[in-house]
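Ligand-bound model needed. zinc ion.
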Amino acid sequence: MRRLIDSHVHMESFDDPETVVQRSKDSDIDAIICVGGSLSSSKIAKRLATEHPGFLYPALGVHPSEVLKDDIEAAITYIRENLDSCVAVGEIGLDYAYSFAKPKDVRARMRDIFSMFLDVAAEFDLPTSIHSRSAYKDSLELAAKAGVEGVFHWYDGPLHTLKAILDAGFYVSATPSVAYSKGARAVMAEVPLERVLVETDSPVYLRNLDRKSTPVDVGLVVESLAELKGLEASEVSMVTARNAERLFRLP
Ligand SMILES: [Zn+2]
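Prediction:
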């Protein structure tokens, strides 16, 4: 039985993924979901997962930061060709906070592309890993309309949209920001443990520790969440691992 799962890692963004995987295996982590941020990084996520079966599981997708640069049709074809070996479509979504995403037509294009990925997920009954920064309502509307399952990764939007996300049946992930961000704590206080996944989104810069994260830091997320919710860390890790197993249908 798995007890600790990092549900969102950009493994290809590490200089030396092999060392990171080895350190993760040597710690308490039982599985890692490796999300793709572009067509090329999705291919790397898939290759790494093939090299570490039963430990790394790939999600294939294109991050909103890359959607205008990447070949979306090629990315969708790649997902269709690799359905059997991936556990989710992701990281996909919307992000209106980027300066390039200010024009209305760019945002409309982002929504069109997000919907294309959602349609693939819906067609093949795959869960999704959704990025929704500064586009919370639109992200929820499109995901709910597509009828997909998924996780709102690192959700830090308004609490009324959070309620709608939970009402629509989605999971929400907790990140290392639970330790230092008032907003993240306010969100996580509202999400029942049965709907929480834990993740590091590594490698990202950890403000409170002044260094970049690795999947091993998912233990810190569990501790922060346990403290916030007044629960035992062992319960938080077990329940969130079960949630990730259920959402991503890990064998
Ligand atoms: Zn990410």
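The first helix runs from residue 17 to 26.
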